[in-house]
Amino acid sequence: MSTLSDIDPVTPIPDLAEMRNILIVDDEARFRSAYRELLAGPGRRIEECSCGRDALRRLDRRDIDVVVLDLRLPDIGGIEIMDWLTRNRVATSVIVFSADESIDSAIMALRQGAFEFIRKQCDPADLIQSVDRALRQRRMEQEHTLMTARLEQSERLHRFLVDQSPDLIYTLDSQGRFVFVNGRVESLLGYTRDELLGQHFSIIVHEDDIEQARYAFGERRIGERATSNFEVRLRNKQNSIRSFDNRMVVAILSSQGIYTNDNDNGTTQPHFIGTSGVARDITERKRAEETIAFQAFHDLLTGLPNRTLFLDRLELSITQAKR
Predict the structure, then answer these.
(1) What CATH homologous superfamily does 168-281 map to?
(2) CA distance readout (Å), 161 to 27, 43, 279
(3) Which of 248, 182, 254, 251 lies closest to 223 in space, CA to CA?
C-alpha cells in the first residue's frame, strides 16, 4: 500500500527566495569592482570569482540567478563554463561580458545558451539593463516552475486520497459507462479497474435494484438536490450478492452530475458529460443494527421472543382491534 512518505504529496514547497544572487566572473579585480557597483541594488546579493574553477564550485550550489561571465579566464574559458552549466542542467542565466570583439565568439556564446553577449566597451547602462532583463526572465521561469510543482503536488495528493479512500469512488460517462473507478472496487466487489472501465454500471447492481438505481447512477442534478445516501445492493464479480440475514443492502450512494461549459453562439451553456459518485459499504453497520434489533426483542440464551416483543405485539394488536 502506498503511504504519504512514498509519494511525498504534502511536503511543503518553499516559496521563491526574495534575494537575487548575481555572480561576477572576471580575472581582473578592477572590472569586478566596477560591475559590483553598477549592479548593486535592493534585494541583490553580488558575489565574485576570479577564475573558472572557483566559478564552477560556486555555480554547483545551484542558487545563482545570473552570472556575468568573461570568456577569457586564466584556467577555464567561459565557453567551457557554459558547457558545464548545460551538461549539469544548472538553471542560471549567463550574460557574457567580454572584451573579445570577434563575431565568432559572440555566436559561439549564444549557441551555448548565453542570455546576451555584451562587449566591455559598451555603455555601462547596457549591462545594467541586460542583468535586469535576465533577472525578470529568471523570476518568471521560477514562478512557472513553482506553480507547476504545486499543481503536480496537488494532483498527487488528490490521487492518493482517492486511491486510499475506504469508499468506492467512480465516474460514469453520459451513457452510464465507467470512465474512472478507484482501487476500492477490487476489495469491495472483486473487480479490477480495467475490468470495469467501459462497462455499464448495471454490471455491479443487483438486477432487482437496477430500475431504482438508474436515477442515482445517472444523476444529472448537482448541489443539495443531487442524490444522497441512496441504499443499493451491489453484485460482486462472482455475480453473487453480499448479504446477511436475508437482507442485501450493501452500500449507500451519493452522486451528482458533471458538466462542461460549451460556448454556443456566444452564450455559455452547461453540457452534461456524466456522473460522479461515492458508494460507502454499510454491510457491517446493517449487521450491527440487525443484531441490536434482534437482541432487543429476544432472549439472549434461548433466542425466543421476550416480554418486550410480546408487549409490543400485544399493543399493536389492541390498536388494530380498536379501529
Answers:
(1) PAS domain (3.30.450.20)
(2) 56, 40, 15
(3) 254
Q: Where in the chain is CATH 3.30.450.20?
A: 168-281
Mean pLDDT of successive 10-residue stretches along the chain, which has 323 residues: 49 75 91 90 91 93 91 87 91 84 77 84 87 91 86 84 89 95 88 93 91 93 92 77 47 93 75 94 79 79 76 80 76
Report d(CA 45, CA 39) in Å as an integer.
10
> CB of 47 within 8 A of CB of 23?
yes
Q: How far apart are CA 220 and CA 212, in angstroms?
A: 15
- In Å, how far from its chain's centre is CA 303? 54
